[in-house]
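[Solved] Which block belongs to which protein?

Original post:
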Amino acid sequence: MAIQLVTQSVGDALVTSLRERILADEITAGTAVTEASVATEYKVARQTAKAGIERLVGEGLLERTAHRSARVPLLDETRVQDLYFARGVIEVRAYELLASKRLLTPEALTAHEAFQACSTGSNVADIVQADVAFHRALIDGLESDRLSRAHSVIINEIRLCLAQVQNAHLLAPAEIAEEHQTIITAIRDGNVPRAGEVGLEHLRHAERNLLEYLRR
């Protein structure tokens, strides 16, 4: 049966649907996502399917090796640890810099409110997107194009980790929202050490829970 797409450009709607299914674990880790299967399932042209797959490869939600179909990446301990390490290198220092300037942009506060609003829901894709938007808005507040681009690469790929945390019920969205608030408070208060500490613990909390789950 063909899957119906919401009204928007076919290419965008296709990517949105595939992204939501990957984040909801409906397309599971290790599953091949081919142009032929996508074109058939969604009743779209092969070229549209190919473009959609390439966009998701660029986002880190699919990976492709030479002469192989794109697949949903497998999350293992090494990948998770490296992703959170890279994320921490950027985010922890960024929060300290933001605190030193007491810099909270309207976009960051709006993103926090948006996450709080969706934290009572059950749509994993919405929760992950809102979580990513909050952290991205904080980093963007430093107004460094290169820093934002570097962070975007990592945060896009780490969405698989965030989704797994939600799919396995490892950390309640309301608890994540509270941790976001502690970061905001530290930045607003200009407490540089505290901003770094709570930012790091926020990452370690999710990483610990996810690693424990993967080791079961």
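(Second protein starts here: sequence line, then its structure tokens.)
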Amino acid sequence: MRAHLARVDAVLVQAVIAAALSFAHLHDLASAAGQDGWKAWAYPVSVDLLLVAAWRRLRSGRDRAAGWCWFLVALTASLGANVATAGLLDLGDVPDWLRILVAGWPALAFLGGTLLAHNNETPAPKTADEPEAEPAVESSPSAAQTTPAEPRTPVPAALIQHARKIADAHQSRTGTPIDTATLRARLGVPEPLADQIAAQLT
């Protein structure tokens, strides 16, 4: 545990030293390019914030091309300031092209920060397409044919006359037509035959 904390502390100390040196170099370069006062201190803040925004985009895994692009832009600005203040450039006589780059940096940093901050919306998940309705399959006609009705047995005329007498007697006695069940009971015939006789009496 102590060894891990020692490694973390060493990394933090190294990061603080590197950030302080880079911050100072950017301030010195901006001041030499004509950006005096608070403006010279704003330049290193702008570069570092763009680095942080680009690094967060790379860590998020979304649109890594944009993250790498702006990370390299900010890293180039930081490294350029470190190299320029190492004695390779006369800070007392800064060339015009460097003054132009320093003066145009705020607009470039604003563009990069805006794109990195407002272009991270995740696309909405696509809704599953509704399943297409399957065409209705017409049912084929049943192969089974209906069984033909059994042929009815012809009713003898004498039986019909006898049944009519019974029906007339029942109606004269009760005042209502005779029903099939009573007719079948009086004649003593099967139900299908009683139905045929009752149909002929009506």
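Accepted answer:
You had them paired correctly. Confirming on the second one: The chain has seven helices and no strands.
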